[in-house]
Amino acid sequence: MHFTLPFRMRIYLIILFCVLCGGMIGLMVIEQLSPLDAFYFLIVTIATVGYGDIHPVTPVGKILVMVIIITGVGCFVGVAANSIEFMFDERERKTRIEKLNMIIGIFFSEVGTRILKKICTYDPAVDEIRAVLVVSSTWTDTEFSRARAVLLNHTYSIDCPLPLLEDLHAFLMHHKGFLLALLENPQLIEHDSFTPLLQALFHLTEELMAREKLTGLPLTDYAHLSGDTSRVYRHLVLEWLTYMQYLKQNYPYLFSLAMRQNPFDKNASVIVS
What we know:
This protein has two domains: 7-91, Helix Hairpins, CATH 1.10.287.70; 96-260, no CATH class. The protein contains ten helices and no strands. It has helices at 7-30, 35-46, 59-120, 126-130, 141-152, 162-174, 176-183, 194-209, 219-250, 252-260. The longest helix has 62 residues, at 59-120.
């Protein structure tokens, strides 16, 4: 899992590294210590152990050691404290991400998979991506990456007919409360792709509900609704693939059910045979 060290901790590490390198060179030149003895002396000094078996004997060496103590000990303590803080923060972050993945699972279970199945039926180029989205239990990260590359290059252009708009209107109106509850969840700020999906889906919901009727609209308005639907479709299919990969890696039994409900697999069936 990718993570970035906090800026403050990086500064401490850079200063500590400079102190170690500069201190080693200075002790080797001024005190005539071997590289091993110089490094050993630096470690026991910065770690405040101070065995006393090696100590500076020249005035310049003593000044150098005082500088090392002032800068190095503080940086060492800073690195130790920030490391502990970082580990706690990282554990809390992983817990939040795990809870968010549970929310995403509920989303696909309640509405996501069914919306995806409704929309992809009207994708004129769905056969271009169908072949790479029949996910199986033998898939590795390579297959998921290959499928994602295909999806990123796919043209998401849904020319929404009236039956699809009416179907989506009824379905989204029935689940509007559920979608609002998801959008209000503060943990969603941890996820860079699921939040835009919800925003696009909620926008489509508002667009459909804002019209008294969906029949007899001008072609420009149908084109507008098609654009909103295509935006939802793109976000939805990419997030679905990410969620499938997450299930494959963490929850094989949930992945098994998701495979049997694959909206792109014509042969998918929840019945185990």
